[in-house]
Design goal:
The structure is a single chain. The chain is α+β, with helices and mostly antiparallel strands. It has a domain of about 70 residues. The protein is built from 3 helices and 4 strands. Strands 1, 2, 3 and 4 form a 4-stranded antiparallel β-sheet that branches. About 25% of the residues have low confidence.
Length: about 120
Amino acid sequence: MPTVIDPPKSPVMPSLPDVDKAPSIGTGSTSGGGNTGGGPWKIIVLNDDHNSFEGVAGALATYIPGCDRNKGMRFAETIHNTGRAVVWSGQRETAELYWTQLKDFGLTMAPLDQG
C-alpha cells in the first residue's frame, strides 16, 4: 500500500543517496510494475536554488496523493534544512509516474531509491 511519508518534526541531516548505486528510472526489471522484493520505491526531492517553498509545496500537493499544501510546506522546509526529503514511497510504476511529474514540474529529484 502506498504511503505518504510525514516530514520529520525536527531537522535531521541524512546522507544523500549514492547516485551510482541507487536505481533510476528505466533500469532494472519488475513484473507487473510491483516491487522486486527490496522494499518500496522512494521518491526523494533534493534542495536547489531555483524553486521556492511555495513552488515545492504546490507541486507536491498537486502530484502526491495525500499531500496537501501544509504538508508540502513542511516537506519544503525539510528539503531546505537537510538537503532532501522522501516525499512518497510505494510501487515502482506509481513512483516512476510521480517522479516524472515532479521532475517535469521543475523540482530537483534524486534517482528513485528502493529500500
